[in-house]
Amino acid sequence: EALQTVVGSGKSQYNGTVPINTTLSGSTYQMKDATRGVGGTFGGMAITNANHAPESNPTPGTIYTNSTNTWGDGLQYVSGGSTTSANGQTAAVNALWGLMNTYDTMKNTLGWQSLDGNNTATYIAVHVDNNYDNAFFDPNCKCMYIGDGGSSFNNLGSIDVIGHEMGHGVIDATSNLTYSGESGGLNESGADIAGEMTEAYARAGGTGSVIPATGNDWVMGQEISKSGQPLRWMYKPSKDGSSPNAWSSTLKNLNVHYSSGPNNRMFYFLSQGSNASSGSDYYSSYLTKQPLAMTGVGNDKAYRIWFKAVTTKFTSSTNYADARTKMIASAEELYGVGSKEATAVKRAYAAINVGT
Ligand code: ASN
Ligand code: ZN
């Protein structure tokens, strides 16, 4: 049977009605985008229904199919309901929209295709476990699992969370930063950076070769939160009550979702600058040169510098000091020795107590 790529309509939970690439096989529509990524387990970027397979032993289940090319109802999945009904399909719409946007962000701005850079297709399985308040990249399948949410979150398929998990996939395929100690914090931060840059690109319409200077919210998981509080604050990580704002010798002992904080703040400063006049959340007292401020280089350059470093220079054991050295090298290669971009990298790391 000939397969044909067609554009369907999905009711997403966080982004309204969105156009999604699906595949027509005979008279059945499959939730598979064969224009982004080739090969892989399903022959294209696929969204599957894990149908409550346990998080401890996850299985993807099968690709979502439908008799029409209209998917989902935009509403939160009701626990105990049907994972195949329009209600259940919404999780799949969220996942595919996040995947399409993450893929396009990396391909259109950085020229990086899929998770491995070789355009190998991956998949996202939704409805993993029950009332599951998490989402994760699985290094075994090089795929992702997304929960429906429980006490803390609604469905975890917001653009920044999907971008985060795909960010883990890129790191897994490249530097493979060990997921503990300082390298684990850098791995987590790299995933948050991918999530926020995807958010900036998607919110501006998802086209063009440049990440917009503004538009992302610099917090992770705002949309999925039931409390109204995000999961993490990149511009001031300590707002979560657990993450430090700056590097110290004990940082390596923290959970990776907290030791990520200083590098997240570094990236915020690198992009947006540290500005004392904007209030205490937006400057670093470690920047002792007047006026406790540095100039940012914008999202696009900041992401190019980070992405080059994390995919081609970092190793599995890179720590914060090594990251600084390699980020400077990355900025110098991209923008020149002595460039304002290289200087901004030094200032951004100085702002989190790494180097001067
Ligand atoms: N949501 C978590 C993360 O991606 C799950 C995990 O893999 N630790 O960081
Ligand atoms: Zn993560």
UniProtKB/TrEMBL annotation:
According to the entry, every stretch annotated as the Peptidase M4 domain falls at: 8-171
Provide the active-site residues from the annotation. E165, H257 (proton donor)
Please, which domain of life does this record's source organism belong to? Bacteria
Q: Which residues form a coiled coil?
A: none
Q: Report domain Peptidase M4 C-terminal positions.
A: 175-354
What does the similarity note say?
Belongs to the peptidase M4 family.
Record-given protein name = M4 family peptidase
* Organism name: Pseudoduganella aquatica
Which region of the full protein is contained in this chain? Answer: 234 to 589 of 756
